[in-house]
Amino acid sequence: MLVLAPMEGIADHSMRDLLTQHGAFDLCISEFVRISNTLLPERVFKRYLPELENNCQTPSGCPVHIQLLGSDPLLMAENAQRVAEMGAPGIDLNFGCPAKMVNRHGGGALLLKEPEQVARIVSAVRTAVPDSIPISAKMRLGYEDTHLALDNSRAISESGAARLTIHARTKQQGYRPPAHWEWIALIREVVTIPLVANGEIWNFQDYLNCQRISGCEDVMLGRGALRNPLLSQQIHQQQPDLDNSTTWRAITPLLIYFYHLTQANYPELYVCQRIKQWLGFLSPGYLEAQHLFSIIKPLNKAPLILKELERHCASFPNNQIR
């Protein structure tokens, strides 16, 4: 199974649409919905997961599970029950967010300091929703260090989760390489539920290395899918890495496709920001993306950005999406 990661402020429904339309994902996890002090109204869940109006699938048919983030077991359970009644086919629990604001309020990776609280949250949510709706979780290896990694994994597994994704770094390690896939192999020895490996998978060879070291068949892609939106397709087809020029040629039409997706859903200024954001993720891997980003960075009018995207795409005759 290949899963698209729940990247806050990045993997919204427009990006999920694009990456599943032109990739080979089996499942998406939504951006987290923060549960703080109330039972959220349905409109909030629909804002984060508009796919609720489409049988919780992207337009290409990829299922989407909703992720909840919070520290109060009762509130988490009540909100899980509500979104389950709205039609969510699966609920994921966030024990990995490293954001300071989230951790300051007791959520995300901070909960990994208290395996007992992690267990209470998973158990409460599992009890609140029908057995037919799977509960999953995503965690890091710990907060400052890894000494509670096995305890947290057991807490999640033994409290009713059906699947656990491991981002193979601690909160303090952030996104700095390497990802410690060997820890996932250790966790596999103490839990009985399927594990999904996550972290530092940028290309097909990374995917193979992650599978070999972690022992996991299932993998979650995050920033690697943003840098190369064809990566999931390459993995699905067991296709060795292509040279950058070939990959970039196939990516350029997707920039225009993403422009039209965001234009249909967001104000003009936000459309500009999203295109620049994605080019920022693409730039480390492609000199062409760096050049294009330098051109559109000062532009704040969506039609001008579209014009530059079309001009760039036209420089590749007979371009086709792979």
Explained architecture:
The protein is α/β, with parallel strands linked by helices. 45% of the residues lie in helices and 13% in strands. It folds into two domains: 2-236, Aldolase class I (TIM Barrel); 244-314, Bacteriocin As-48, Chain A. It has helices spanning 13-21, 42-48, 73-85, 100-104, 115-128, 149-158, 181-188, 204-214, 223-227, 231-236, 244-263, 268-282, 287-296, 302-314; strands spanning 2-4, 27-34, 64-69, 91-95, 135-140, 163-167, 195-198, 218-221. An eight-stranded parallel beta barrel has the order 1-2-3-4-5-6-7-8, surrounded by seven helices. Helix 1 (13-21) packs across helix 11 (244-263), helix 3 packs parallel to helix 5 and helix 11 packs antiparallel against helix 14 (302-314). The longest helix is centred in the last third of the chain and has 20 residues, at 244-263. The model has no long low-confidence stretch (mean pLDDT 94).
Give me the secondary-structure topology.
Blueprint: E1 2-4, H1 13-21, E2 27-34, H2 42-48, E3 64-69, H3 73-85, E4 91-95, H4 100-104, H5 115-128, E5 135-140, H6 149-158, E6 163-167, H7 181-188, E7 195-198, H8 204-214, E8 218-221, H9 223-227, H10 231-236, H11 244-263, H12 268-282, H13 287-296, H14 302-314
Helix pairs in contact: 1-11, 3-5, 5-6, 11-12, 11-14, 12-13
The count of helical stretches stands at 14
Q: What is the name of the CATH topology of the largest domain?
A: TIM Barrel
Low-confidence segments: none
Main beta sheet: 8 strands, parallel, barrel
Strand content: 5-15%
Radius of gyration: 20 Å
H and E order: EHEHEHEHHEHEHEHEHHHHHH
Q: Which structural class best describes the helix and strand composition?
A: alpha/beta
- Looking at the overall shape, the CATH architecture of the largest domain is Alpha-Beta Barrel
- End-to-end Cα distance, whole Å, is 21 Å
Total beta-strand segments: 8
Name the CATH class of the largest domain.
Alpha Beta
The CATH homologous superfamily of the largest domain is termed: Aldolase class I
Helix percent band: 40-55%
How are strands sequenced across the largest beta sheet? 1-2-3-4-5-6-7-8
Shape call: globular
Mean residue pLDDT: 94
Number of domains: 2
